[in-house]
Amino acid sequence: MTGNDGSVADLGEWGVIAALRARMPAGPLTSVGIGDDAAVVGAPSGNVVAAVDMLIEGRHFLRDWSSAYDIGVKAAARSLSDIAAMGAVNTALLVALAAPGTLPASWAAELADGLAAEATRAGAGIAGGDTARADYVTLAVTALGDLAGRLPVLRSGARPGDVVAVAGLLGHSAAGLALLMSGVLTPPAATGGAPASVPPTVSPVIPPASVPPADAAAAPPAQAPAPAPDDALAGLVAAHLRPAPIYEAGPEAALLGATAMIDISDGLIADLGHIATASGVQVNISTPGLPIAPALLKAAKALPSTSGTTALEWVLTGGEDHALVAAFPPSVTLPPRWHPIGEVREGTGVTVDNATHAGPGGWQHFR
Ligand SMILES: Nc1ncnc2c1ncn2[C@@H]1O[C@H](COP(=O)(O)OP(=O)(O)OP(=O)(O)O)[C@@H](O)[C@H]1O
Ligand SMILES: Cc1ncc(C[n+]2csc(CCOP(=O)(O)O)c2C)c(N)n1
Ligand SMILES: [Mg+2]
Fold first, then answer.
1. Which of 37, 111, 180, 311 is exposed most, by the fewest CB atoms within 10 A?
2. Binding-site residues for Mg(2+), please?
3. pLDDT tens profile 208-249
């Protein structure tokens, strides 16, 4: 299933499953993996932690931008990071894949490699899935995890006085998306990452003007100057195409006594809003404590129509990096990868430097 070996329709459903199976290790806790009616996965501490997330062509990715490997990584990372955000260790993924019959079999193989690589990075395997034909590539990845005897870290446990800290990147994926949407950078997949025989992909179902950040989306792709290669900017595009959550920071936070935790898929403000609501508290973000990578400032300058606050906006409202954000009792000594960015107070909602932030604070489907 590599090279110029035809389409998934040529292989047929069972052929596709066999080919995927050969590339996706079952993982250490799976005693029955791909090939039976259901998988059997060990749950060493007695409770199964489970999450599912979809990844939809045109909504979450474009095949013109992302290689099949990128899409596999991203689909896996979205669900794996939800398990980490409960303080749990990932054990196995179930992968539901729908795709057009014209999809090259080698594309499906690359997808399996990306899924397998990211699952392995999180310590998990791939225990099963489902395969069907559809007009667009759609993935629904279920992740299973284990709490190793600990209590789950919920969204609802934050208490006034807690310190809010983040582990992982903020705003990189949003900046990478803005660079791609504006045409300032060409996606690697368009220059060799995807097979030449990839069928035409759909255009984004999201009108560009509604995709955050709005200032970047407004930039005209055609007129954008072709810049010299820039590793810092290319790194942002890579962060968008292949998020790399720090999975082990989830169980680490649980062991440290985190009172609440969430992974940032929609945006820092939006996702902290879920903690604030579930916990019945207010969260204040202090912008001087926010890690704003120099690459973000560079990207904001490289985009034709951005303002001086664009890099900060990406950090505050950009999703898809899947950093973990957690509340810790003030007595906890945080390891270096946990950066304090704010505090929990009495009240409601999320404030930024004690003020309400204008706008939705992140991504929301159907808006
Ligand atoms: N269609 C659905 N049916 C049942 N439960 C759902 C459905 N959609 C979401 N949920 C549940 O709602 C809660 C919040 O889900 P949500 O998808 O917003 O969280 P998330 O996966 O962390 O974020 P995101 O999907 O934005 O990455 C979860 O408990 C999830 O299982
Ligand atoms: C082609 C294209 N256009 C826009 C975006 C941006 N985007 C899509 S979904 C989402 C939030 C997370 O989704 P969910 O809430 O489903 O977890 C974001 C920031 C993208 N990734 N690709
Ligand atoms: Mg979800």
1. 37
2. 37, 53, 82, 130, 263, 266
3. 223 333 333 333 333 444 445 689 999 999 999 999 999 999
Ligand 1 residue neighbourhood (C-beta within 6 Å): 53, 82, 265-266
Specify the residue for token string 């059997």.
40
Query: Which part of the chain has CATH 3.30.1330.10?
Result: 8-146
Beta carbons within 8 Å of 205's beta carbon, 6+ residues apart: 58, 59
Q: State which amino acid sits at residue 62.
A: L
Q: 8-146 falls under which CATH superfamily?
A: PurM-like, N-terminal domain (3.30.1330.10)
Take atom 8 of ligand 2 and give the residue whose Cα is closest: 60
Annotated binding site: 37, 53, 60, 82, 129-130, 155, 263, 265-266, 320, 363
From 3.40.50.360, 3.40.800.20, 3.90.650.10, 3.40.50.880, which CATH number describes the 163-199+207-356 domain?
A: 3.90.650.10
Atom from ligand 1 closest to the CA of residue 82 = 22
pLDDT in tens, 138-192: 999 999 999 999 999 999 999 999 999 999 999 999 999 999 999 999 888 655 4
